[in-house]
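hey
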């Protein structure tokens, strides 16, 4: 898999600095950060039943992602700064996060995006996040497409 954009590698979206050292069960990571089980295992080291926030995602080494271009590269990372948000009344929408300094460059790049969606859908590996949680967590989202199908 490849990342949708030519990422600037500013490392912002791999950096968990505000939470470094904090420890959460998978249930709490789901509740507070909307991370599914697959993302918890990918991003964090685990001790017994708790995941620990490092400064960076655990796949981030020497300034690069170890999973980049590999089959295990998470969907959420492959499409970021796009995000698939679940809507309060059901269904999904495509949003973009203006926290990424590259968002203006990729905002019109939805053709490539939907190719990536199809590839991950085959493996049932699509990550989605409730829209209200994205706003609560500080994502500066704007809607790109209000009704999308991801299966
Ligand atoms: S925030 Fe945007 S530009 Fe920076 S590493 Fe993430 S995707 Fe790349
Ligand atoms: S899996 Fe790679 S791109 Fe995704 S947060 Fe971790 S280091 Fe960053």
């Amino acid at each position: 898999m490849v990342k949708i954009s030519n990422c600037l590698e500013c490392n912002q979206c791999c950096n968990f600095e505000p939470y470094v050292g904090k420890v959460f069960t998978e249930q709490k990571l789901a509740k507070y950060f909307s991370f599914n089980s697959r993302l918890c295992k990918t991003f964090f080291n685990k001790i017994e039943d708790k995941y620990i926030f490092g400064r960076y995602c655990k796949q981030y080494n020497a300034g690069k992602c170890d999973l980049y271009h590999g089959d295990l590269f998470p969907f959420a990372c492959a499409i970021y700064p796009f995000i698939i948000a679940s809507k309060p009344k059901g269904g999904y929408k495509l949003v973009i996060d203006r926290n990424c300094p590259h968002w203006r460059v990729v905002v019109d790049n939805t053709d490539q995006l939907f190719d990536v969606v199809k590839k991950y859908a085959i493996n049932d590996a699509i990550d989605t996040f409730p829209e209200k949680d994205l706003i609560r967590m500080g994502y500066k989202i704007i809607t790109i497409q209000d009704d999308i199908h991801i299966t």
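The mean pLDDT is 92. Residues 14, 42-43, 57, 59-60, 65, 67, 74, 77 surround iron/sulfur cluster (ligand 2) (CB under 6 Å).
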